[in-house]
Each structure stands twice: as structure tokens, then as C-alpha cells.
């Protein structure tokens, strides 16, 4: 009871201080506090702006110094060229380039290109060369590539994949898993393959796919030798079948799926295609998603991926950039621009 009374007494004795404060003093204090806060904010803003002005040239210098080969994850939708353009724009925006702060005393070109075109309907590993790394794209493309491809039996299209117009339909209901597995050996090793009409191969300097879209008559390229290192059936759920393919340069998965359909006395087209590996670069371990397309992330990836390259193709360390006073221009380098048309390596 005494404790309760003590508690009541203690709480009732805690009265607020109601001593009046002159209005003029309160306003003066508030004004002083506001002025102090505004001054502090201005100082922070000035400091932040100064840091930003310094960091952009530093980022641009770092961007210009990047050199090597790395991999990005290409989603379904954009073409390889469109994806490269998106990558370039993100890097330029991050570096604040071009900027009025940069003079024209020295012009430095940023070279960036991709190797091994993936069509808009495909996804997976896309190898990118930056700086002197663009010179390595041809040697990188001569290595093996791995794909997971899902084909659809019973339908043929003009593009040999699901994006094209259906040109033929045939029954497939009698085809079994054993039938498919039994013919895969015919498509393993060094085989002859006719490239698709819708492809990046060129005639008179123009892509066959461009000529086809114009409605022009295009003759198929002659069959050429290509290499399939391994080929296995992963899943069969009619009319769909999934293949795991490891192949060399110049190989077309669309042609393979179409030829398998014909060998089964039916027809087929590619429904889904994912490149899971190109050379030493794998989709899970090395391909950068778009949210990692930053100067720092790419620099880190270049450092990590340098150990994947053969010693004879490794880049020597370049000299430090001479100054920040450079103007950045961009140059696209696709494989067509590095090598002649006969040496272009396309895989889809």
C-alpha cells in the first residue's frame, strides 16, 4: 500500500514546466537553428557535387582502361547487337561520357564487340570483348559451345524456329524416345550441315535473313563440315524433345533440330534455345546479368576471367592512361569486322 501511495505521489509530482518563453526568443532560436541546418546542407551539397565532378572523369578513365574478354547473360528478346548497344549505353552513362569537361587534346576509342551471335529468340552466354580483348574474339569462338535446345516435332517453319511461319506439318505420334536416341549418332562427330536461310551469313554484303525478310529469292548455302562433340536426349514429351549439344564453331542448332525431324520422317523446329557455355565461360558462373553491367563489376569479371584464357592469348598489361583529358568515342566490333566473311563464326 505504501509503495502504491509512493508511486502515486511520485507521478503526481512530475508536472511540466510551464514557465513562459518570450516569443521573440523562441523565434530567434528557431531562426538560428534553421540557418545552421541550411548552411550545413549547403556545405554537404557543395562537397557532394565536387566529388561527383571528380568521380566521373575517374570512371571514364577506368572504362577506357578496361581490356579483355568477359561474358554477359543475354535474355530472350533483343538481338546480340541490340544487347551490345544497351551495354555500351549503360557504361557511357555511368562514366558520364561524353562530357564537356573532356577536351579534344587526345581522342581515345573504346572498342567493344561480341562474338558468336545469339538470335533474339535465344538466351544464354554472350562473350564480349572490350579494348584489346576484341582481338581475342576469333580465337575464343573456335572453342566448343554447349546448348540446351527444345525442339517441337510435327511443324516446320521458314526460320527453323518458333518465330517463323509454319511451312509444313507432319504426324509425329508414332515417334518414340528410342527412335530419337537411335538416330543421334548420325549427327555426332564431323558431319555436313546446310546453314539456315534465315541467318547472319551474307550474300553480296547483305545478311541472308535481311534478304529473306524483303521477300527476295535466296539460295541455300552449300553444306559444310561442322563438328558435334556430344549429343544426348534429355527429355521426350511428345511433341517436345530436349537435347544437350556440345559443338564447334559454325554449327547451327536450328539446322540440327530440323534435320532430326526429317530423319524421323516428320519435321521439327526449335522452340527454346539456351547457350550454357562458350569456350571457358558458363552461364551459371561467368555470365553477368544486366544489373551487374557496371564498370566496377566488369573490371572484376575481367580479372577473374583472365585466368580462364589460354596463356598464349592472354593480354599483356597496358600502360596507364596518360591523363583524364580524353574524349570517348565508341566503336562496335562484331566478328564480321574483325575477320572476313568466310571466317565469320556463327552458332545460331
TrEMBL record:
Any single GO molecular-function term of the entry would be: tRNA pseudouridine(55) synthase activity
Report the InterPro entries cross-referenced here.
PsdUridine_synth_cat_dom_sf (IPR020103), PsdUridine_synth_N (IPR002501), tRNA_psdUridine_synth_TruB (IPR014780)
| Cellular component annotations (GO), alphabetically ordered | cytosol; nucleus
**Catalytic activity, as annotated:** a uridine in tRNA = a pseudouridine in tRNA; a uridine in mRNA = a pseudouridine in mRNA; uridine(55) in tRNA = pseudouridine(55) in tRNA
Give all residue intervals belonging to the Pseudouridine synthase II N-terminal domain: 104-253
Q: Which Pfam families match?
A: TruB_N (PF01509)
User: Which cell locations does it reside in?
Assistant: Cytoplasm, Cytosol; Nucleus
Q: Does the keyword Isomerase apply?
A: yes
User: What EC number(s) does the entry state?
Assistant: 5.4.99.25
User: Which biological processes are named by the entry's GO terms?
Assistant: mRNA processing; mRNA pseudouridine synthesis; tRNA modification
Q: Which controlled-vocabulary keywords does the entry list?
A: Acetylation, Cytoplasm, Isomerase, mRNA processing, Nucleus, tRNA processing
Q: PANTHER family recorded for this chain?
A: PSEUDOURIDYLATE SYNTHASE TRUB1 (PTHR13767:SF2), TRNA-PSEUDOURIDINE SYNTHASE (PTHR13767)
Q: Its family?
A: Belongs to the pseudouridine synthase TruB family.
Protein purpose: Pseudouridine synthase that catalyzes pseudouridylation of mRNAs and tRNAs. Mediates pseudouridylation of mRNAs with the consensus sequence 5'-GUUCNANNC-3', harboring a stem-loop structure. Constitutes the major pseudouridine synthase acting on mRNAs. Also catalyzes pseudouridylation of some tRNAs, including synthesis of pseudouridine(55) from uracil-55, in the psi GC loop of a subset of tRNAs. Promotes the processing of pri-let-7 microRNAs (pri-miRNAs) independently of its RNA pseudouridylate synthase activity.
Entry protein name? Pseudouridylate synthase TRUB1
Q: Which organism is it from?
A: Neophocaena asiaeorientalis asiaeorientalis
Amino acid at each position: 500500500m505504501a509503495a502504491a501511495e509512493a508511486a502515486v505521489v511520485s507521478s503526481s509530482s512530475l508536472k511540466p514546466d510551464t514557465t513562459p518563453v518570450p516569443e521573440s526568443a523562441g523565434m530567434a532560436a528557431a531562426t538560428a537553428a534553421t540557418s545552421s541546418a541550411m548552411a550545413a546542407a549547403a556545405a554537404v551539397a557543395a562537397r557532394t557535387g565536387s566529388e561527383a565532378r571528380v568521380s566521373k572523369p575517374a570512371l571514364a578513365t577506368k572504362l577506357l582502361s578496361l581490356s579483355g574478354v568477359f561474358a554477359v547473360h543475354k535474355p530472350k528478346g533483343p538481338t546480340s547487337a541490340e544487347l551490345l548497344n544497351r551495354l555500351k549505353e549503360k557504361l557511357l552513362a555511368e562514366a558520364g561520357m561524353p562530357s564537356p569537361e573532356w577536351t579534344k587534346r587526345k581522342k581515345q576509342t573504346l572498342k567493344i564487340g561480341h562474338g558468336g551471335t545469339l538470335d533474339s529468340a535465344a538466351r544464354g552466354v554472350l562473350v564480349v570483348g572490350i579494348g584489346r580483348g576484341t582481338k581475342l574474339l576469333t580465337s575464343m569462338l573456335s572453342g566448343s559451345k554447349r546448348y540446351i535446345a527444345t525442339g517441337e516435332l510435327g511443324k516446320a517453319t521458314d526460320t527453323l524456329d518458333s518465330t517463323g511461319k509454319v511451312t509444313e506439318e507432319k504426324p509425329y505420334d508414332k515417334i518414340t524416345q528410342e527412335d530419337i536416341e537411335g538416330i543421334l549418332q548420325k549427327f555426332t562427330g564431323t558431319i555436313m550441315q546446310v546453314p539456315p536461310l534465315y541467318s547472319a551469313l551474307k550474300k553480296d554484303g547483305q545478311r541472308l535473313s535481311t534478304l529473306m525478310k524483303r521477300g527476295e529469292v535466296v539460295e541455300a548455302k552449300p553444306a559444310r563440315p561442322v563438328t558435334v562433340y556430344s549429343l544426348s536426349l534429355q527429355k521426350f514429351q511428345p511433341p517436345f524433345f530436349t537435347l544437350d549439344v556440345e559443338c564447334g564453331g559454325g554449327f547451327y542448332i536450328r539446322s540440327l533440330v530440323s534435320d532430326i525431324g526429317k530423319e524421323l520422317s516428320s519435321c521439327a523446329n526449335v522452340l527454346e534455345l539456351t547457350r550454357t557455355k562458350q569456350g571457358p565461360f558458363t552461364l551459371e558462373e561467368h555470365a553477368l546479368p544486366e544489373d551487374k553491367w557496371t564498370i566496377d563489376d566488369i573490371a572484376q569479371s575481367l580479372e577473374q576471367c583472365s585466368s580462364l584464357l589460354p596463356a598464349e592469348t592472354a593480354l599483356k598489361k597496358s600502360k596507364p592512361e596518360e591523363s583524364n583529358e580524353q574524349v570517348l568515342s565508341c566503336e562496335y566490333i562484331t566478328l564480321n569486322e574483325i575477320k572476313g566473311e568466310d571466317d565469320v563464326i556463327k552458332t545460331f
